[in-house]
């Protein structure tokens, strides 16, 4: 796994050595130099960050900024002043820190700078490949995703996002919307798996008063609410066939008809859909309309699972740690070396969402300033399992057996809402457990 690399330019050996040891324990690969000339003998573009003292033998540390571009430079000095800080920032320094510095504060600054630069390096044509809104990724697969987002965002083209649960499909949708011509209008997000089949058409397309029992007033649908903006349909593979037909009309004709109405309303929405399922396979079994599939599959973005993003795991971990500490108003915590090794080797079947949740739990439970492996509460043995699709079995096996038996025996005569109520869970939780235990949701084919 590729470590993040840092070059330290500092003529005081004691400070340089101390900083090297500390950053080494945080999982960074550290190179040292005592002057700008010495540092210049090394290819500067191989580093993720350069930390330099301002006052050095020979040229000042700020001279490395222009030579190192686009690698970010953090300037440190014991001669802190407003004028020197302004001068360093004007010359292009990523940030400025005064000595003596707090190591944890410096680590936070380092992670912020590196994460801000992820995906932002320029290609040979000078075109930026990121960073995207709220998204991090250095690996090749994510760079491809960033490049495609940059290309497709300014268009009105429909986009289909594929990826396992927890890989960040909604973040991609928001990044596309943010960089689109529709960015001043709203993005409306809908999880198709979380809405009962009987309500999905009303939720998406609206209804007239008296259209059905309980329709006591006219209601605007989510498609109409997204007019002029972006509609993001997550888990579109769970959309019932009747709703698929209505959605196809939106894409073909740019119009909707509320449930219970004979009149149509014109709408202009940019559609982004996402799923973890094979829509092409669903068209072959009649569970998904082929004509809708081809309407959606104009530009396809495939998000890699976290286990295939080895270069990004620790970047994401540091990002979530800093984010969580800020949210919970806790001092900046640090990972032990053992924790970093564990996170880099674990398979993360729940992907980015699992990593984020594990770190939040660890921050809440931590009683000191360090996060040890046990606080992550992950079963490392499961990471060596041959199947990349299996999740750690954190539940009692008998409970899983009961759930599977109950769903299979009752799904033919009970709705998803009734099943969820009987099991004492939400519809979304029921859907998630179906995915985990590979129990498909069976729908009757359209006649």
Short summary:
This protein has 447 residues and is an alpha/beta fold. The protein is 42% helix and 13% strand. The chain has helices at 13-25, 36-40, 63-68, 82-90, 103-117, 140-152, 169-178, 197-205, 222-225, 241-253, 279-284, 290-296, 313-327, 337-345, 351-365, 373-376, 397-410, 416-423, 427-437; strands spanning 5-9, 29-33, 49-53, 73-77, 95-98, 159-162, 187-191, 230-234, 255-256, 265-266, 270-275, 299-302, 334-335, 370-371.
Structure overview:
The chain has 447 residues and is α/β, with parallel strands linked by helices. The chain folds into four domains: 5-117, Rossmann fold (3-Layer(aba) Sandwich), CATH 3.40.50.2300; 140-302, P-loop containing nucleotide triphosphate hydrolases (Rossmann fold, 3-Layer(aba) Sandwich); 315-384, Orthogonal Bundle (Helicase, Ruva Protein, domain 3), CATH 1.10.8; 397-437. The protein has 19 helices and 14 strands. The protein has helices spanning 13-25, 36-40, 63-68, 82-90, 103-117, 140-152, 169-178, 197-205, 222-225, 241-253, 279-284, 290-296, 313-327, 337-345, 351-365, 373-376, 397-410, 416-423, 427-437, and strands at 5-9, 29-33, 49-53, 73-77, 95-98, 159-162, 187-191, 230-234, 255-256, 265-266, 270-275, 299-302, 334-335, 370-371. The strands form four sheets. A five-stranded parallel beta sheet has the order 2-1-3-4-5, with helices on both faces. Strands 7-8-11-6-12 form a five-stranded parallel beta sheet. It has a two-stranded antiparallel ribbon with strand order 9-10. Strand 4 (73-77), helix 4 and strand 5 form a beta-alpha-beta unit. Helix 5 crosses helix 13 and helix 13 crosses helix 15 (351-365). The protein starts with a strand and ends in a 10-residue tail after the last helix. Mean pLDDT is 83; it is low at 119-131 and 382-398.
